[in-house]
Amino acid sequence: MSFDLNMFRNTLGLFVTGVTIITTRDQEGDPVGITANSFNSVSLDPPLILWSVGQNARSLEAFRAATSFAVHILRDDQAELSQRFATSGTDKFSGLALDPGLGNAPLLPDCAARLECSLHAKYPAGDHVLFIAKVEQLSSDPTAMPLVYHGGRYAALSDKPE
Fold first, then answer.
1. pLDDT digits (tens, 9 = 90+) for 56-71
2. Is the pTM of this model over 0.85?
3. In this structure, are residues 73 and 82 in contact, taking their beta carbons and an 8 Å threshold?
4. What span, in angstroms and rounded, lies between the C-alpha atoms of 87 and 78?
5. Residue 96 contacts by C-beta under 8 Å, 6 or more apart in sequence?
6. Helices (H), the chain
7. In terms of CATH, what superfamily is 11-148?
8. Among the listed residues 47, 37, 55, 72, the one whose alpha carbon sits nearest the alpha carbon of residue 132
9. What residues contact residue 115 under an 8 Å CB cut-off, 6+ apart?
10. Is the sign of the CA dihedral 86, 65, 131, 11 positive or negative?
C-alpha cells in the first residue's frame, strides 16, 4: 500500500454518512445495541440493506446469532443517544422506553426511521462482518432531519439554495 491506515480512515471520513443504532437480543434475551454509520441500501426489490460490525466488537456474537434486528436512523437531536450506544461497558438501554419489534428486537423511540429486518446474509470482510438484511417493516418521519457524521464528528445537514 502506498498509504497508511490513518490516511485511509481520514479519507473515508470525508464521506458524509447518516448515523444509525442497530439493536437485537442476545441468546439470553437481553437487549444489545451499537451505533453504526456503516449503513446503506442494497436493493429495492427485495428491500435489502447492509451494515457492518467490527470483528472485535463485544456485541458481535449476539448479532451473528440473531435472525432479526432493528435499524434506527437517528434524528439530528439524537447525538447523545448515538454516543451512548457507541460506548462499551454501559447499560445502553437504561431508562429508554422500548417497543418490541420483529423477533422481539428492541425498538428505540422517536427516531427519524425504524427498519425491522430479518437476516438475509452475513459475510466476513477484513476486520468487520457484513450483514445484509431484508426490511420486513418500517416506520419513518419524513419531516425529521437526520443526524450526520463527517470528519470524525457530528455535523448539521442543510439544504443548498436552488
1. 999 999 999 999 999 9
2. yes
3. no
4. 15
5. 108, 109
6. 5-12, 60-65, 79-86
7. Electron Transport, Fmn-binding Protein; Chain A (2.30.110.10)
8. 47
9. 49, 70, 71, 72, 73, 135, 137, 138
10. positive
